[in-house]
Amino acid sequence: MKAIVYEGANQLQVREVPMPQIPEGWGLVRVRYAGICGTDLNIYAGTHPRAKAPLVMGHEFSGVMAESAPGFPKGTRVTVSPLLSCGECTPCREGNGHVCNDLKLIGIDRDGAMADYTVVPLERIVALPDGISDQMGAAVEPVAVGVHTIRECGCRPGDNALIFGGGAIGLIHALVLRHAGASCVVIAEPDPSRAQLGRKLGFEVIGSSEEELERIVNKATGGNGFDWVFDCAGVQPVADKLLDMVKVKGCIVIVASYKKPASMPFIKGMFKEARFQFVRVYRQKDFEIAALLAGEDPAFEKIITHVLPADRAQEGFDLLTRPGSGAVKVIFEF
Ligand SMILES: [Zn+2]
Ligand SMILES: [Zn+2]
What we know:
The protein is an alpha/beta fold. It has helices at 38-45, 90-93, 134-137, 140-153, 168-179, 192-200, 210-221, 236-245, 266-272, 284-296, 313-321; strands at residues 2-8, 11-16, 26-35, 55-56, 60-65, 77-80, 83-84, 104-105, 117-121, 125-127, 160-164, 184-188, 204-206, 226-231, 246-254, 275-278, 304-309, 329-333.
């Protein structure tokens, strides 16, 4: 079968690989679409701490059941949560398998879905609702990240929010916040092409300069600061600003994975009695909710900016590593 294979730092190949073996309790999926995630870009750059070449990448995907499995007849349209939890550690036993001490993912720790076929644990499969396209089915995973954040941190209707980062994850958080009843959602994104997509989705998008941030905090919150500040960027210049933008008793939510340790003026947080919340991936329930939400609201599909045949894998990765390309979510067709 055909697969997109990570062959080492900045090297990938579209080539034939053997069909995967199906472990006990797993099922075989014929992949239709598989998307590129920020994590895949790390793998491709050779900087992911766990991924080892050669590896079939891909943990965001949709497809159909290639063979019948209990609860999923052959041909059922599906997407799959790629998490592999150990089931035995204390977090797993306490119902928090998404932060398992030994969390692994399909497409990172074992071969994934940028291929004609992939194998998945049956308990991770989510049947796609009728309203969702196969293409959007491949982007349920990043939507689940946003659903998880908002459910985990408990935003309430009427709350206001500032999101740093207008890539796929930032935009998805904005859309999920809108569904959760947020009164005002502002996105800070310096890249003009990404900012444009945010505006098309109906959000106020600002740059990230000192002046623009000061203007927006005055205009949107009367200078009080935002109830919620979401960090979907993960870089030091954003960490510098988080505590200035949050209100007294407000909450900063770290969604991005910081590649380097960040420093922060904690004294500002103390003066505000601000809270910090960190989030990681999603629960199975978040994944199911994401599939429903993404099927109901066509706005989510607008984050998919490029659909390419698998043979043009290199072009897809180049789009996402080239600043100003305007690419937000790139998916491959199999
Ligand atoms: Zn992802
Ligand atoms: Zn575990």
